[in-house]
Each structure stands twice: as structure tokens, then as C-alpha cells.
Design a protein that fits this description.
Strand content: 25-35%
Mean pLDDT: 76
Distance between the termini: 39 Å
Largest sheet: 4 strands, mixed
Helix content: 10-25%
Radius of gyration: 18 Å
Order of helices and strands: HEEEHEEE
Length: 114
């Protein structure tokens, strides 16, 4: 189990490790698990955006809520490093742990402009 500070410190070493891998699109810190997995979904107040009587385009709902670190990880929660890659063949080239912090690899789609 790693604290947030430990994970942040290990992030630089992980970045150096994956620097030469084409297809790595993100390196960051993420909660190992969240308390929301054990609780029912919460309802959020939404605010619709758009001008009344304006164009007939679809409306966008904006959802926002401030949360503390403790709410994300739970009391005594642990943090991991997360690497986002576009190529599943990279998964085996990324270490499972660095500086005693676990590394999670997610295969995601390529980021493109709309």
C-alpha cells in the first residue's frame, strides 16, 4: 500500500522508465480502489447548459462535486501509478511495481481531435 506522497515520488521514476515506449499517452497517480464501489450510486444535481429558444442542438449536463482525498480512497486508502497506453503489446514492457508502488496499465483508445 502506498501513500499519495509515495506514489507522487515514484511517478518520476516511472516516467523515465516508459519514456522511450511509443504508445504511452499518460502517466499518473490513481486511487487503488474507491469507496464508491461499496456504496450505492449518489444522485448529483445537474445543471443544463444552453440558451432557451436558441439552436436546437443537444443540451449538455454539467456535473460537479468537490471531494476530498479521503472520500476517493477511503480512510487509509492506497494509491497506485497508472499508465495509459494505446497498444496492448506494451503491457508486458511496463513494470508491475516501481519504488514499492504498484503500477496499473490501462489500454485506451488513441486520443484524437473531434
Amino acid at each position: 500500500m502506498a501513500t499519495l506522497d509515495e506514489a507522487r515520488s515514484a511517478k518520476a521514476a516511472l516516467r523515465d522508465t516508459v519514456a522511450g515506449l511509443d504508445g504511452v499517452i499518460g502517466v499518473g497517480v490513481a486511487p487503488e480502489f474507491t469507496t464508491s464501489l461499496e456504496q450505492p450510486p449518489r444522485e448529483y444535481r445537474a445543471r443544463a447548459q444552453g440558451e432557451p429558444g436558441g439552436s436546437r442542438g443537444s443540451q449538455v449536463e454539467v456535473l460537479a462535486e468537490e471531494v476530498s482525498v479521503e472520500q476517493v480512497t477511503g480512510p487509509g486508502g492506497s494509491w497506485v501509478l497508472q499508465v495509459n497506453v494505446t497498444d496492448p503489446r506494451l503491457v508486458d514492457k511496463i513494470p508491475e511495481e516501481i519504488d514499492d508502488v504498484a503500477v496499473r496499465v490501462r489500454v485506451v483508445g488513441a486520443v484524437r481531435a473531434g
